[in-house]
Amino acid sequence: MFRQLRKRPQQGGGDAGCPAVCSTYPQIQMRRTGLAKGLTEAGSDAVIVDLPTDYFSYEIAHQKVRDYLSSASQPPDAVFAASDTLAMAAVSALREHDLKIPKQVSVVGYNDISYAALFDPPLTTVRQDIHQAGALLVEKFMQILDGAHPPSVTLPTELIVRKS
């Protein structure tokens, strides 16, 4: 699912926006919650508007952003994506609308996949320790197989600022 951030309209002016990319999966909803919390803590007046998609497909994400841009009154300020792949799709769609990254629209992904640093422009992303995440996933799965109901775990993250 895509998340669209919109600044509240200024008195006598239009509005400016920033999209974000997410899905209906619980762990992705937690990323959305983190985004909302960060905006609140920063004192931002941005509002998150969702552009739903249930698939982590580059093609579907690209089309969702294109459709959004075609119907929006003005481009967003930023795009926040639930994955780096979705962020890359958003960059492509933004460029098709002649928008400059990051001059006109900032883009942030999630996961810090290896291609994120090599992408043009190098993608700003949220890094999570995927080895720790994988080990926890296996551990929790084994607990479930043993009949347990293991609690959810939130892993630490780090913002990797690049050029998008």
Oligomer: single chain
Sheet with the most strands: spatial strand order:
3-1-2-4-5-6-7
Radius of gyration: 17 Å
- How would you characterize the largest beta sheet? 7 strands, mixed
By secondary-structure content and strand pairing, the structural class works out as: alpha/beta
Secondary-structure element sequence?
Answer: EEHEHEHEEHE
SS strand fraction: 15-25%
Cα-to-Cα separation, first versus last residue: 20 Å
Q: Percent helix among the residues?
A: 25-40%
Helical stretch tally: 4
Silhouette? elongated
Count of strand segments? 7
Show unreliable segments: 1-18
Describe the 3D structure:
This protein has 164 residues and is α/β, with parallel strands linked by helices. Helix content is 36%, strand content 21%. The chain contains 4 helices and 7 strands. Strands 3-1-2-4-5-6-7 form a 7-stranded mixed beta sheet, sandwiched between helices. β4 (78-81), α3 (84-96) and β5 (106-110) form a beta-alpha-beta unit. α2 packs across α3 (84-96). The longest helix is centred in the first third of the chain and has 16 residues, at 26-41. It is elongated, with a radius of gyration of 17 Å.
Quick synopsis:
This protein is α/β, with parallel strands linked by helices and 164 residues long.
Feature tags:
disordered N terminus, alpha/beta, 4 helices, 21% strand, 7 strands, 164 residues, 36% helix, elongated
Lay out the secondary structure.
Elements: E1 2-7, E2 17-21, H1 26-41, E3 46-51, H2 58-71, E4 78-81, H3 84-96, E5 106-110, E6 124-128, H4 130-145, E7 157-160
Parallel strand pairs: 2-4, 4-5, 5-6
Antiparallel strand pairs: 1-2, 1-3, 6-7
